[in-house]
Every structure is written in C-alpha cells, then in structure tokens.
Amino acid sequence: xxxxxxxxxxxxxxxxxxxxxxxxxxxxxxxxxxxxxxxxxxxxxxxxxxxxxxxxxxxxxxxxxxxxxxxxxxxxxxxxxxxxxxxxxxxxxxxxxxxxxxxxxxxxxxxxxxxxxxxxxxxxxxxxxxxxxxxxxxxxxxxxxxxxxxxxxxxxxxxxxxxxxxxxxxxxxxxxxxxxxxxxxxxxxxxxxxxxxxxxxxxxxxxxxxxxxxxxxxxxxxxxxxxxxxxxxxxxxxxxxxxxxxxxxxxxxxxxxxxxxxxxxxxxxxxxxxxxxxxxxxxxxxxxxxxxxxxxxxxxxxxxxxxxxxxxxxxxxxxxxxxxxxxxxxxxxxxxxxxxxxxxxxxxxxxxxxxxxxxxxxxxxxxxxxxxxxxxxxxxxxxxxxxxxxxxxxxxxxxxxxxxxxxxxxxxxxxxxxxxxxxxxxxxxxxxxxxxxxxxxxxxxxxxxxxxxxxxxxxxxxxxxxx
Length: 467
Fold this sequence. Notes:
Endonuclease, Chain A; 15 strands
C-alpha cells in the first residue's frame, strides 16, 4: 500500500498506524449485524470477548444471553464488559443469571462507587472479538431498538457495523484487554493475543478513544482541513465543538462537497435542538444537510475524498470526543470508502434536505410605507406638511419597535448566558475540583439565602396580619 503524504500526520493524531492485510466487511442493516454477531458467538471455540455500552434485558438481550451461556457451558471463555450507566435499566437478575452459568461479567465504573470525575467518562465502545480471529465493531448496541419488531410494525434503527478479519483483530483484542483490566483483574497473557495472519488487502487503523486524548477529534479536524473534494458525515448526536464546526464551515466555503446526514427522529430530542442551532451557518457556507426520514439513525461514519473512511462508536460531540472511551476504525485507499459513500447516497435518498428560507418580516401598513417614502431627508426644501398618523399606523410602529427591542434584549441575554456557561465549562475542565467546590458553595449559599428570604417574608406577613 502506497503511503499517502497525509498518513504521518494522521498517525500522530490517532495514535495508531495502519495495519495491513485485513478484510473489512460493511453491514448497514442492524438486524443483519445482530444475526452475524450471534453466529460468530455460536461458532466460538476458545474465547468470546464482548464489550458494549447498552445491553438491554429484552428479547434481543436475552438472545445474546442464551448464546453466551451456551458457549460458556461448552468450555469457551466468555467475557462480557458493559457500561454501568448505559445499562442502568438492565435488571440485576440478568447479570446474576449470566454469572451463575459461567459467563464472566464486569460492569465498567459503577455509578455509585466511581469518583465524581471518573463517573462522567463512560465506556461507549461496541466490540466483539471471537477466538482472536474475527471481530466486529461500529455503533450498534444490544436491544430491540436495533432488531425491530415486524409484528408490531416497529422498524429497526439504522446503524453501521463492520466485520474485521486479519492482523487488525489483534489490535482490537488488545483494546478489549485494556478496558477489561480497567474494570478488574487483567486477562491472562495467552488470551490477550490475536492472530497476525493476513487475510486481505486493507490497511486499518484501530483508534482507541481515551478521556482527554481527543484522538478522533484531531483526526476529523485534520481530514476536514485536508480534503479537496468531499466530506460526507453521518452522525447520530452531532454537537460539534466550535473548532470542529469551524473546520466544516471553512471546508464548505472553500468548495468542498460537505454533507451531513443526521437523524430526523431521535431518542434524545434536546440534542436535536442543539444540532439544528448550527444549521444556518453551515448552509450559508454551502454545506448540505439531510435528516433521515426512517427510524432513528444511529450510525457514526465519515468519508473524506476517495481515500479515507471512518466507522466506529464516536459521535461528534464533546462527551464522545473528549470524555468517553471510544473505538473507531480508520482506513485509507480502501474499498470501505466506496462502500460507505454508496451507503451514504442510499440513506440520503431516504432523507429530506434542509434548505434556507428567507425570513418573514412584519409588513407595515400601506399608508405608513407611503409616508416613509416621502419623508424628507432634511428640514429644508420639500418638507411636507404635518401628517397625523392613524391609530392603526401608530400600533404598527409600536409593534415593530417592540419586536426590535425584544430581539435585542434576547440576543444580549443569550450572549451573556453563553459567555457565562463557557467560562464555567472552561473552569470545570482546567480546575475541576476547585470549580466544583466553588459551584457547590455558591449553590449552598443561594439555597440558604432563598430559605432565609422566604422565612423573613413569612414573618413580615404574620406581623402585618397581627396589626
């Protein structure tokens, strides 16, 4: 594989070098991805290593539980690592039954026993490694949302997974081993090594997202700055940090074909509100934005020019890019780029495009418009005689003035609030303990002041009533 001149910069940004000799197979139908995972688990002979952010105790989750138990009974080492926050709704009985049948289950950072800072860094990865030979990763979790229910007319969420065969599986196995060790005793050395046998032509970077490392963030920034033809992004919860957002805007302004494919229906409505707030500037810059018309779009992919592709668990928002443990694959000069581009066009055909529309303005009454047209520019020649406005005209002028004042006040308050929250956020990042203590003391002082004010007000009322 010929080295791309951009490769060395991407190596440093991602903390990973391309691993040659792999086959990467794309699966865009969530139900098919679940069935492929179950088939891989059923065929395991030595080990099953499974890691996921969400594993529900529902029909789909119980299918996986049954598959894990069957392999454990057959003598296969089955290890399941789940995020305690992502699986907070899963019953304790679900995990207890797995342990009783020989499955080694570990939660990652239980909510009540983790530190106040560590509790915000979650294991958002999605990974399956079987026998150190084959692996699957992407954005898919385990639950009925991803399998759908045709009998009830529930369509499966649209997500993306890839199956990997080749030396990159060893890197994925190593990624699981490091996360497993963060949640308890480490894996035996002989079980943490994958195969180095080549099985295809693809070079793959295995990018391990770690809190504070911002590897995918830096990689996407580099790609946005380097592309010359196209930048096509599919994301489930897009709230890009300002520098990344600016990179998308600058790429679009320079003539790059920037397209964003986002959910039209979401399980977190508040995120869509923040996502849509950034539409206008992107559209003014020339980017194209599409909202998927089908069920929830949960995929996280990127296509840059005809050379680069990314698929994984990282959403382009602050929690994924800076705070969570994530896992992504980046390929170059590989067939996955063309495959993801074809899938993007297929999804785009099932989406609605968001376009700019001229703002509606409050029209003035015809008499007022005519009066304004003949108003003099100075007190000199051509000054008309005194004209008394009608009640309707005065009401229209007052309404326009009120709207302008309200708009200015709203912008001023929004700007002040944004600045305040930005300062608080920076302080929390740079000085987490001090800032948290200050906020806690401030909240306590405010609560005591409000309580004292309430008591004093009631006392004054009683004294007034007594008089």
